[in-house]
Amino acid sequence: MALKKKPVTGMKDILPAEMEIRDYVIRLIKETYSGFGFSSIETPCVEHIENLSSKQGGENEKLIFKILKRGEKLKLESAESEADLVDGGLRYDLTVPLSRYYANHANELPSPFKALQMGNVWRADRPQRGRYRQFMQCDIDILGEPSNLAEIELILATTTLLGRLDFKNFTIRINDRRILKAMAAYSGFEEESFDTVFIILDKMDKIGMDGVRQELEKEGFAKESIDKYLDLFEKTTRDAAGVRWLKEALAGYLDPAYADGLELIMDSVDAVKTADFRIAFDPTLVRGMSYYTGPIFEISMDEYGGSVGGGGRYDEMIGKFTGNNVCACGFSIGFERIIMLLMERGFKVPGAERKKALLIEKNMPADGMKKVLAIARDERAKGAQVTIAVMKKNKKFQKDQLKAEGYEEIQEFFADRM
Question: Which residue in 251, 281, 252, 257 sits closest to 267, CA to CA?
Fold first, then answer.
């Protein structure tokens, strides 16, 4: 059987042109986020299957790449269920591993702890534009900070990074899971049906208000509740005034402090932001992860046509490991989607090293070779990126290839001229 040269479906090989951009963005991420006080950490790509299947990851728990037990622990002949065969899985995000990491090392870490984590994650998802089965995630999280300073810092750090990558006119959409619940309770939905209601609401941008109404009706919810619910969305403006209006409309269902906190986040970010973007209240924003407990946010970018990042507060997840809840909030950028957009716009890495190519004849004598190697050494000492290559018969094609790789300086060396 012939070996397969293409990567596994949903995964990709990365060519040098893209890798140069990825390396630059990674450097910029670390530089920008360290300026906000975040410290780099790393966790294993394999997690305990119990942690990944704890009903915290929403739909992602259906997409786990599971790992069989090894050696003597794997007993295929006596296995009666999946639990007898599987004890680990590839992580589907970085939040669950971070929570385990913090629970394990809390005594060795400062409080609050500001973590930066970058690494590949895996989801057995349907591949499409900007979506892969293996992809890099980049998360910043603040653990142990109960105030809305955490949300403000996360949004400012993330938008500062996007501004430095020359992204403009994007939108940070923000909501609060407690406002979502208050709107549903006010409308007459039972608490046990909230998840169903929110799953349908999350489709608003795809199916519109009428589509949401039809799906709620199909689920058998009362017309009175549906009308009351959708009326809230029609009357709520997408700004701080909309938050204030809901605070009044949901009196008795919503703690006013939650609305005040959301308004504080929006006003504070807007007052000191350095990038060109808007922050907008979006009462339809749900976020799929069930572990969110407070403010949630997403980055919407018109040139992508969807979200390129998101996050929120998850104050109860670490308590699943320790028995004691720890305030936690995080923001993740869609690293692969950001790279894709930069590639599509023809992004060039600023301040890249000068690239120089030295072409030598095929039968260059030893003395000539030493001279060329010395020239390369001296140029590299000056900060240039230098490659030495033997001239090909089709020299024009070779030079065109080198120029496509960024080698604008090309020098030729012939044996009889050395």
Answer: 281
Secondary structure of 246-265 in HEC code, one letter for each residue: HHHHCCCCCCHHHHHHHHHH
Q: In this predicted structure, which of 63-77, 301-315, 319-333, 393-407 has the lowest mean pLDDT? A: 63-77
User: How does DSSP assign 164-203, residue by residue?
Assistant: HTT--SEEEEEEEHHHHHHHHHHHT--GGGHHHHHHHHTT
Distance from C-alpha of 244 to C-alpha of 238, rounded to nearest angstrom: 11
User: From its phi and psi, is residue 58 left (phi > 0), alpha (psi between -120 and 50) or beta?
Assistant: left
pLDDT tens across 104-148, in order?
999 999 999 999 999 999 998 888 876 789 999 999 999 999 999
Pairwise CA distance, residues 141 & 334, whole Å: 15
What is the structure's pLDDT at 57? 64
Cα atoms in the 13 Å half-sphere on the side-chain side of 227: 3
- % of residues, the chain, pLDDT over 90: 75
Is a pLDDT exceeding 80 seen at residue 304?
no
Does residue 95 have a known ligand-binding role?
Answer: yes
Residues 6+ positions from 53 with CB-CB distance below 8 Å: 61, 64, 89
Cα radius of gyration (the chain): 27
According to DSSP, the β-strands at 170-176 and 295-301 are antiparallel
Check if the beta carbon of residue 212 is closer than 8 Å to that of residue 201: yes
93 is in an annotated binding site: yes
Question: Rounded CA gap, 149 and 155, in Å?
Answer: 10
Measured distance CA(90)–CA(57) in Å, rounded: 13
Whole-model pTM?
0.89
CA atoms within 13 A on the CB side of 311: 26
With beta carbons less than 8 A apart as the criterion, state whether 100 and 91 touch: no
By the 8 A CB rule, do 169 and 290 touch? no
Per the annotation, does 315 bind a ligand? Answer: no
- The answer to whether 291 is annotated as binding is yes
- Phi and psi of 91, rounded to 5°? -60, 140
User: Of 192, 125, 154, 190, which is closest to residue 336 (Cα–Cα)?
Assistant: 125
Q: Which residues contact 257 (CB under 8 A, 6 or more apart)?
A: none
Q: Which long-range contacts (CB under 8 A, 24 or more apart) does 21-29 make?
A: 21/339, 21/342, 21/343, 21/347, 21/349, 22/136, 22/339, 24/349, 24/352, 25/165, 25/335, 25/338, 25/339, 25/342, 26/118, 28/161, 28/164, 28/165, 29/116, 29/118, 29/138, 29/161
The overall longest dimension of the chain from CA atoms, in Å, is: 92
287 known ligand binder: yes
